[in-house]
Write a structure and sequence with these properties.
Distance between the termini: 39 Å
Radius of gyration: 14 Å
Number of strands: 8
Order of helices and strands: EEEHEEEEE
Helix content: under 10%
Shape: globular
Largest sheet: 4 strands, antiparallel
Structural class: mainly beta
Length: about 100
Amino acid sequence: MFFSRKPKNLNIKDDGNGVYRLRVRTARSGDTVELRFTRSAHIGIDDDGNYVYRKPILSSQHLDRGEVLVQFDKRYNVTHTEVEGGEFIPFAEWDAE
């Protein structure tokens, strides 16, 4: 399989033109927090030379705290996602909320 494609990440929605969105459900009270970020303004480079987006989250209703980490390869494909203090909401479930 020479041209096998890596499956897309179901937690991060690519809106095009370098704009991404994600939603997190907080662990403590179940609040939904949506984050929107861009390649040019929010994604940085870590010590290993990989692209990374790291953001603390805070729900406005119950002040639940957490942190989101999204890692990208050189072509801005999502390679790893992690959330502390909650869980990702797959964008297939966004309409249900």
